[in-house]
Specification:
Elements (H helix, E strand, L loop, with lengths): L1 H17 L6 E10 L2 E2 L5 E2 L2 E14 L3 E15 L2 E15 L7 E13 L2 E17 L8 E10 L6 E9 L1
Antiparallel strand pairs: 1-4, 1-10, 2-3, 4-5, 5-6, 6-7, 7-8, 8-9, 9-10
Length: about 170
């Protein structure tokens, strides 16, 4: 009986994978609001700035969601006199909050590397959680636009809120 049940479950997974949509590639631009941390002189500072990202759906299953692989960079961050960069690679799971609803949730893991002129290099793994909402911009088969907000938990210079527009092709 267990073998039949396992075969049934595996068949369902294979059918869902075969019915998955083409994986969309997307680019995004937004702003990163970093949390406060101590610089080399002991002053409280934060790293903020323009954030650019690219991502692609690695696995996409109807109804259940998709797995996203991406990379982002906060370029020339400026906030409280801080100049620095933050580079991030991430693997997220994106799923509808309620099937049929436009809102979706994001959650996953990231690797961060931050460097700046007045703080030491910081790197390491972290987690992230967020929400998104698609915006209709044209025909259903064309590019799509979404607003996304993610909070990233990591080392001091790498933690903070990212808000941006995501354009999928």
């Amino acid at each position: 009986m267990r073998k039949v049940l396992a075969l049934f479950v595996m068949s369902g997974i294979l059918v869902a994978a075969a019915a998955a949509q083409v994986t969309p590639f997307s680019v995004s631009a937004g702003y990163f609001f970093g949390r406060n941390f101590q610089n080399n002189s002991g002053n409280s500072i934060h790293l903020s700035g323009l954030e650019l990202a690219v991502q692609d759906n690695v696995i996409s299953l109807p109804i259940f969601g998709s797995v996203i692989l991406g990379a982002s960079a906060v370029l020339g961050g400026a906030g409280s006199g801080v100049n620095g960069e933050l580079y991030r690679g991430y693997l997220d799971y994106k799923t509808p909050v309620v099937p049929g609803n436009n809102f979706y949730a994001l959650g996953g893991f990231n690797y961060n590397y931050a460097t700046g002129s007045n703080f030491n290099k910081q790197s390491g793994f972290g987690t992230e959680f967020g929400i998104g909402f698609p915006i209709k911009i044209g025909p259903a088969l064309g590019p799509s636009l979404a607003v996304e907000a993610r909070y990233r938990f990591a080392q001091a210079a790498s933690s903070g809120l990212s808000v941006g527009l995501n354009l999928s092709f």
